[in-house]
Amino acid sequence: MATTNDLKNGMVLKLEGGQLWSVVEFQHVKPGKGGAFVRTKLKNVLSGKVVDKTFNAGTKVETATVDRRGMQFSFKDGTDFVFMDTETYDQLYVTPETVGEAANYLLEGQDCTVAIYEENPLFVELPAAVELVIEYTEPGVQGDRSTGGTKPARLETGYEIGVPLFITTGEKIKVDTRSGDYLGRVNS
User: What is the pLDDT of residue 24?
Assistant: First the structure.
């Protein structure tokens, strides 16, 4: 148990019938009249839904101990993703629903963080940007160097994103894992 005065970004709270909510941001507010309160933005750990919630200052909230482990993606076993704990070398099978959007950027041997609560994987966290090779994209036409134009490109993971017209098949690019945006070329 903790109070709303102890809140920190990234802390996981257990609210409303055992649902897990991660604190995205919080703000202590002390109006001139009336009691102080804490305004928070919470993200549901499982569904990803974000809500605003206000607590009275000093209210007790139940915290959940979420273990964030450094893991490496090993391989896919059927539909499950298999991760290896980088410290204990234990293997962890994670369902596609839990991996979610991260599956679009996962390559074998990639390091990531897996959040675990009571031995159940909650979500997979990738670095903010990853480097991937373009598996296929239409060739650019000579003179297609104008800014702002994009074309579809299939990454080595099979996921498709929009890239600038001058990018070619086989190039290594940097991709934002949160938005799926092209961030730039990677110089080899």
Answer: 87
pLDDT in tens, 62-78: 988 888 889 999 999 99
For the chain, how many structural domains are there in total? Answer: 3
Distance, in Å, from the CA atom of 39 to the CA atom of 131, rounded to the nearest integer, reads: 37
187 — pLDDT class (breaks 50, 70, 90): confident
- Asked whether residue 139 falls in the same domain as residue 178, the answer is yes
Determine the pLDDT at residue 173: 92
Residue 28: phi, psi to the nearest 5? -85, 130
| DSSP secondary structure string for all residues of the chain | -EEGGG--TT-EEEETTTEEEEEEEEEEE--SSS--EEEEEEEETTT--EEEEEEETT-EEEE---EEEEEEEEEEETTEEEEEETTT--EEEE-HHHHGGGGGG--TT-EEEEEEETTEEEEEE--SEEEEEEEEEPPPPTT---TT-EEEEEETTS-EEEEETT--TT-EEEEETTT--EEEE---
Q: Which domain holds residue 90?
A: 66-125
Judge whether 6 lies within some domain.
Answer: no
